[in-house]
Design goal:
- There is one protein chain.
- It is globular and about 35 Å long.
- The chain has helices at residues 12-21, 37-47, 90-99, 114-122, 133-141; strands spanning 24-28, 51-55, 61-62, 65-66, 80-83, 104-107, 126-129.
- By secondary structure, it is an alpha/beta fold.
- The chain has a single domain, classed as NAD(P)-binding Rossmann-like Domain (Rossmann fold, 3-Layer(aba) Sandwich), CATH 3.40.50.
- Pfam families: CoA_binding_2.
């Protein structure tokens, strides 16, 4: 982790604006392994209407989508670059996000790197650090439920069974 003011990059208005305006999310470090957090986040975002673009040079397809080796290979405009990589990789990812003119750089829990954050922020990208996109989406779009699943149940009491 870097020494930086993380709270500066956890502004509620910025988080809400990014979530409410984005349509396409490139997930750098998206894993094909269903047990990985990145896969769960990607699956959740697809279920909620976002176009998810996997960025992982080790995979051909993830979640039914073509996986690209780097952000520079992504053929569509990207609203959010969501990062599931080690903090040391962030400066390079931030430079690529700037190059492709992404709207924002979103760094998942623990992805904290002052240099990478500065690169993106200095070029005008909205930056969110040390927050989970799935959790924040659920919080601000009214979909926060037990274990992240919308069960469509209002109560845990079973009707008619005694």
């Amino acid at each position: 982790m870097s020494d930086m003011d993380v709270a500066k990059y956890q502004d509620v208005a910025t988080i809400q604006r990014v979530i409410h305006t984005a349509k396409t999310v490139a997930i750098v470090g998206l894993s094909g392994n269903e047990l990985r957090a990145s896969n769960f986040v990607g699956y959740y975002l697809k279920r909620h209407g976002y176009r998810v673009v996997p960025v992982n040079p080790r995979e051909k397809t993830i979640l039914g989508e073509t996986s690209y080796p780097s952000l520079l290979d992504v053929p569509v405009p990207v609203d959010i670059v969501n990062v599931f990589r080690a903090p040391d990789a962030l400066p390079g990812i931030a430079r690529d996000a700037v190059t492709i003119k992404a709207g924002s750089l979103w760094c998942q829990f623990g992805v904290i790197n002052a240099e990478g954050t500065k690169i993106a922020a200095d070029d005008g990208l909205d930056v969110v650090v040390d927050r989970c996109l799935k959790i924040e989406h659920a919080r601000y779009r009214g979909r926060m439920h037990w274990l992240g699943f919308n069960t469509q149940r209002i109560t845990s009491v079973r009707s008619g069974l005694q």
